[in-house]
From TrEMBL:
Residues 391-416 are annotated as: Disordered. Belongs to the WD repeat ELP2 family. PANTHER family: ELONGATOR COMPLEX PROTEIN 2 (PTHR44111). This is Elongator complex protein 2. Pathway: tRNA modification; 5-methoxycarbonylmethyl-2-thiouridine-tRNA biosynthesis. One of its GO terms (biological process) is tRNA processing. It comes from Cyclotella cryptica. It holds the Pfam family WD40. InterPro entries: Elp2, WD40/YVTN_repeat-like_dom_sf, WD40_repeat_dom_sf, WD40_rpt. It comes from the Eukaryota.
Length: 1064
């Protein structure tokens, strides 16, 4: 066994946000809560750290707050922080994911329900929710509590498309007990539950439908009130976490159904030991805002007297030693909305000075939905004396108040008939809420304050500006809509006295009114599904349909007033009234599962393809200091078919081989497509390299002839092929590769920007429109949809050509199961490998020297093809370069998902299978070379198998570097093997490789050693589809005991992850 120590950090996680409303939250929390955590590691040789570029020594008890954006992707909650990028001259904020939280729950199932749905080709992005994803999130902050522990407790609640509700709590206290993030399941299947976790329900309840919205508040640091809205109605849950005598955390959950009508939104807020619960109906017409209250007290001594609000005395809902929660009470409904009510926003205490004058406390509730109208409801809380005086004998109370009423009861036909009249009567009390005797205010009157009309389509979210730092600031409301716009609303002032007029007007508009929000992807054309202010109200984020997150930063108007008498007015003016909003770099990613990935041969960038029909280019962008963050900087291909595979074939820009920056992609079609980078992409990559390393100029490859390249490409309407914008008169010769025409030999000298302000990172629209690569060739030959690709890149001076191997779907058809070999430069098939497989060859792998090609698939057979010829250009299309030299029947008991040759040892092959085993093989030849055989040298199971029957292995990959033994005189080398599993876990193992210096008897003692295990919050939520190690071009670790490596992975959770390893 090795004694190497491994340190791992999560460098990058890229994934689009789920296209669901209520999926954004921008909050303040301690910086440490957003740092990557590898505390789930299991190997004794692992050393796991928390990465924080700015404060590496941050103590857990530090209350150093940072602004954190939360958004879900598939079943993952992403925590994002902003840093400053040097790619813009004006220090533009760059927001990226710094930590992920992955649920440990399993899908709710009842019979055949809850099983994965197979998506048909072309289904919309939101149909990915059939794979079980998060549909809504809510932030819970206990910072308003009285104790120090209150300020150190907060968390997240997430609701899923299968009805699961789970939470993550972050806690640490002044006594030194540091807990960090821990998941507690409220509703659903928790495989990790044990005797220390207790769930108590009023009745056994498991939701089977998607949850539309979730809201939560903290009653105290240990108890959270959570409400969910779905087609089954409103469900309240009380989640209580406390330690027992053995200091084990006990989780107790109570549930309460308070409505059975279809509900599309819910919002909970609490004031003075009383919670307001607002729920929006989802009826075909005449929708209502249901209003509930729920009272609670913090101890038995302070038990609430509810005799005023209830005529009957009923027992409390939940009684705990330090908390008593009463039954929820229904007070009535607010009428006016004509379509589904999908969003709420609550603003508390809008006029603090009035409260001091005895005029009561005022708050605003904004509601909106599919009718595109925003209603502002004013909640005025006053004492009983003031309320009686204001009524003047008028009966304004609702008949339902004071009773516990089910929303199913009662006849609202008369109310619905008068909705049109209510539209005109703004300011009249619509509802009177009677509070418990413990409340400082006896009554709350609800009236319609304003009706905001400005959006043309459904309003998807509402958010109030945070005025904590400036209580005198006027309320400002932000709204997003499917009409592709985000509006900022503010109450208009009278010109003379600056007294509010009650008229709300839009003061700013961001987005793309009437235009397209993104690029050519259909999912980007439908507007915003969510938006919110940053905690400091100086930034805005908009969640575009399709998953992209758009950011804008406020830029104050720097113009000085013309007259001296206007100076005071200018200083008092709200900055948002005259400010401009500038777009910042977006968070983007695949919004359906990522099928394959490939590194640039020099490791400069990463290419990924997915079922969202796009190919995306990821590169490192320099940020403040010396750090870099990965982000999407290009979208080379936007296709009409789900993409399945990609491989980079470019090596050098000369006449002997394939040019650099060339890739081949496959999709659910029979054609391979070849793409070459345009000049605009080379300019972008060159600028990023210069910004990362200012002292380094372009390498030799960037200074080669680019006369044959075009400036950029475009995708014609109803087309599947990216076309060049340059003159296509000599298209065929130009696209074949570099020519002898040296007119633009030094053209890359003009690519490099001389000034940093000339460079700008691409926006979402740029990614989908102006970063496309031109398609230069099509390769025909397969009979069905493509499945797998791999490439052998011939080194400079080699007699062998660069080749691409491809396979397609085969249904027990030997002919369709054939593997084809392509010479991309010549644009022809140079070999058809038959007789190896009887069904689909699901994976292919060339050895580093190109001598062998391994294939495997559904027939559980591993085949090794050996090279025996040299390519020629004699026009013989039937030329076969490889022949079947070895095959192992039933190499595994189930389908073989992945094979990969070791780059350091071309005869070492690894395979991973659905049977849960990883096998390592040695390929050897007889002395005369007439016979080739495969020999199994070791077999092991993933460590993440735990108590499961098996852990299917879906991806394997060897690193280029090898480790050496630390024992004196031991010449054994250790190959580094990464594996990915069906459950989303990734592990790194060291495999002893026996050389000629070892004796044959030692082969029986080959024992792989686990170096690192990425499980829990650092793993994928679904199956890992592909992993690949970053190529080592300039390996600075040679001659030292330290190995620096990067591993990229992609999976069915729509995510792309990059891990950085340091092995000592």
């Amino acid at each position: 066994m090795t004694s190497h120590q491994t340190t791992c950090t999560l460098s990058f996680h890229g994934a689009a946000a789920n296209s669901c409303p209520h999926s954004l939250s921008w909050v303040r929390c301690p910086r440490l809560a957003t740092a990557p955590d590898f505390g789930d590691a299991t190997s004794n040789n692992e050393k796991c750290t928390i990465l924080d570029d700015d404060h590496p020594e941050r103590h857990p008890h530090s209350r150093d707050l940072s602004e954190v954006l939360l958004y879900p992707s598939s079943g993952v909650v992403n925590l994002c922080t902003a840093t400053t990028t040097t790619a813009h001259c004006n220090s533009t904020p760059l927001t990226c994911v710094t930590r992920t939280l992955v649920t440990n729950t399993e899908a709710n199932k009842s019979g055949n329900e809850g099983e994965k749905k197979v998506l048909a080709r072309g289904e919309a992005a939101e149909d990915a929710a059939a794979l079980r994803s998060i549909t809504a999130i809510a932030w819970v902050d206990c910072g308003g509590g009285d104790s120090e522990d209150d300020a150190n407790s907060f968390g997240i609640v997430a609701a899923f498309s299968d009805g699961t509700v789970t939470s993550w709590r972050w806690t640490y206290d002044r006594h030194g007990d540091f807990h960090g993030w821990k998941e507690y399941v409220l509703i659903g299947n928790d495989p990790s539950s044990s005797s220390t976790i207790i769930h108590q329900h009023e009745s056994i309840l498991t939701l089977q439908e998607s949850i539309a919205d979730v809201s939560a508040v903290s009653l105290n640091p240990s108890s959270w009130l959570v409400g969910t809205a779905s087609s089954s109605g409103i469900l309240l849950s009380l989640s209580h976490v406390s330690p027992n005598d053995d200091k084990q955390m006990i989780h107790t959950v109570w549930t309460r159904q308070i409505g059975t009508h279809s509900t599309s939104s819910i919002h909970i807020t609490h004031i003075n030991h009383e919670c307001f619960i607002f729920a929006g109906s989802a009826s075909p017409r005449h929708n209502k805002v249901w209003v509930y209250t729920l009272s609670y007290s913090s101890s038995n001594a302070d038990r609430i007297d509810t005799t005023i609000s209830r005529q009957d005395s009923k027992p409390s809902w939940v009684v705990l030693p330090t908390l008593i929660v009463e039954e929820p009470h229904y007070h009535g409904c607010l009428l006016g909305h004509q379509d589904w009510i999908t969003c709420f926003a609550w603003l508390d205490d809008i006029h603090p000075s009035k409260c001091d004058n005895g005029r009561g406390k005022e708050a605003l509730l904004a509601s909106s939905g599919h009718d595109a109208k925003i209603r502002l409801w004013k909640f005025t809380s006053v004492t009983n004396e003031v309320m009686n005086a204001s009524l003047n004998g008028q009966e304004a109370t609702n008949d339902n108040d004071g009773e516990t009423i089910d929303v199913d009861s009662g006849n609202d036909d008369e109310d619905e008939a008068n909705i049109d009249d209510l539209e005109e009567e703004e300011g009249e009390a619509r509802l009177i809420i009677h509070h418990s005797s413990s409340n400082a205010y006896g009554h709350t009157a609800v009236s319609l304050e304003a009706l905001l009309i400005g959006h043309e389509e459904a309003v998807t979210s509402l958010s109030w500006r945070n005025t904590t730092t400036n209580p005198s600031a006027k309320p400002c409301l932000l709204s997003s809509s499917m009409d592709r716009t985000i509006l900022l609303w503010m109450e208009e002032d009278y010109e003379q006295d600056q007294i509010t007029s009650g008229v709300w007007v839009p003061i700013s508009r961001v987005g793309s009114a009437g235009g397209i929000l993104g690029g050519s992807i259909g999912a980007s054309l439908m507007g915003f599904v969510d938006a919110t202010f940053s905690p400091g109200a100086d930034r805005i984020v908009g969640h575009g349909y399709g998953g992209s997150l758009h950011f804008w930063s406020v830029v104050a108007n720097e113009e000085n007033p013309a007259e001296d008498e206007d100076v005071e007015k200018y200083r008092k003016e709200d900055v948002l009234l005259s400010a401009r909003w500038l777009a910042d770099p977006c968070i983007t990613g695949h919004f359906r599962q990522v099928q394959d990935l490939a590194w640039d041969p020099d490791g400069e960038y990463l290419l990924t393809v997915g079922s969202d029909q796009t190919a995306r280019l990821w590169a490192e962008v320099p940020t403040s200091g010396s750090s870099c963050r990965w982000m999407e900087v290009g979208r080379p291909q936007v296709h009409g078919y789900d993409m399945t595979s990609i491989v980079c074939v470019g090596g050098q820009d000369n006449d002997d081989g394939e040019p650099r920056h060339r890739f081949v992609s496959g999709a659910d079609e029979k054609v391979l497509r070849v793409f070459d980078a345009p000049v605009s992409t080379l300019r972008l990559l060159s600028s990023l390299k210069r910004l990362r390393k200012p002292a380094v100029r372009e390498g030799p490859d960037e200074s080669k002839d680019v006369s044959w390249r075009v400036e950029r490409a475009f995708l014609p309407s109803l087309g599947l092929s990216n076309k060049a914008t340059a003159d296509t008169e000599h298209e065929s010769s130009k696209y074949a590769g570099p020519t002898n025409d040296d007119e633009f030999v030094n053209s890359l000298n003009t690519i490099e920007s001389k000034h940093s302000h000339e460079f700008k990172l691409p926006s979402e629209r740029d990614l989908g429109v102006t970063t496309l690569w031109p398609e230069t060739r099509k390769l025909f030959g397969h009979d069905s949809e493509l499945v797998s690709l791999d490439a052998y890149r011939a080194p400079v001076g080699s007699n062998h050509p660069t080749l691409v191997a491809s396979s397609c779907k085969a249904r027990n058809d030997v002919a369709s199961a054939a593997i084809r070999l392509w010479n991309v430069k010549l644009g022809k098939c140079v070999g058809v490998l038959k007789g190896g497989h009887r069904s689909t060859a699901s994976t292919l792998s060339f050895s580093k020297d190109g001598k062998y090609l391994a294939s495997s698939g559904k027939d559980r057979r591993i085949c090794v093809w050996r090279r025996h010829g040299v390519d020629s250009s004699d026009g013989n299309d039937n030329l076969t370069l490889y022949e079947l030299s070895a095959a192992t029947e039933s190499a595994h008991k189930r389908i073989v998902w992945s094979v990969h040759f070791c780059p350091a040892y071309s005869n070492i092959l690894a395979s991973g299978s659905r049977d849960g085993f990883v096998k390592v093989w040695r390929v050897s030849e007889s002395d005369d070379g007439s016979e080739t055989k495969m020999e199994e040298i070791t077999c092991f199971e993933p460590s993440s198998k735990a108590e499961k029957k098996s852990e299917p292995v879906t991806a394997v990959a060897f690193a280029e570097r090898v480790l050496t033994s630390k024992k004196p005189g031991d010449l054994t080398s250790f190959a580094i093997l990464g594996i990915g599993t069906e459950s989303g876990h990734i592990e790194v193992w060291s495999i002893p490789i026996l050389t000629c210096h070892t004796t044959p008897d030692s082969e029986k003692q080959i024992v792989p050693t686990l170096l690192q295990s990425m499980t829990g919050d650092n793993s994928h939520f679904y199956t890992v589809n592909k992993i690949a190690w970053r190529p080592l071009v300039n390996d600075d670790s040679n001659g030292t005991d330290t190995v620096e490596l990067s591993l990229a992975s992609c999976g069915q959770d729509c995510g792309v992850r990059i891990f950085h390893f340091t092995i000592i």
